[in-house]
Amino acid sequence: MIQKALFGAGCFWGVEEHFRKLKGIEKTAVGYSGGKTENPTYESVCYENTDHAEVLQVEFDDEIITYETIVEEFWKCHDPTTVDRQGPDIGRQYRSVIYYLDDLQKNIAQKSMAKHQPSFNNMIVTEITKADTFYRAEEYHQKYLQKRAISE
Description:
Blueprint: E1 2-9, H1 12-20, E2 25-33, H2 42-47, E3 53-61, H3 67-76, E4 85-86, E5 89-90, E6 96-100, H4 103-116, E7 127-130, E8 135-136, H5 144-147
Parallel strand pairs: 6-7
Antiparallel strand pairs: 1-3, 1-6, 2-3, 2-8, 4-5
């Protein structure tokens, strides 16, 4: 059955590239979520304090890949111990966040975070919060690295 997951782990280009290659991921889309502005744009998210995070929405076949596995990959693809920052990217839009779509996803995310905390030297600062509206980013952001053959 096709399910969805939504999370932020820094710049959405690299996060999408990481997840799109996993077996069982049927679709990916980058966008914005968790903010206070309707229909945000890349420019407004970066420069107008909309409070949105750059996020990845994945559609996955739960008979091939589980939500638990997706959350495990989430911990691998970024540093969940840095507040509003991933590498050189600094700002609230780069926060580490898992947006859960139901109570099962919430429980899985919380248990996974507790399980992984001992493997980090610093405290995990990942937000785990109920999913808000997902606004699809501009088309030029979709599969950005794949289009440019940067990661192949």
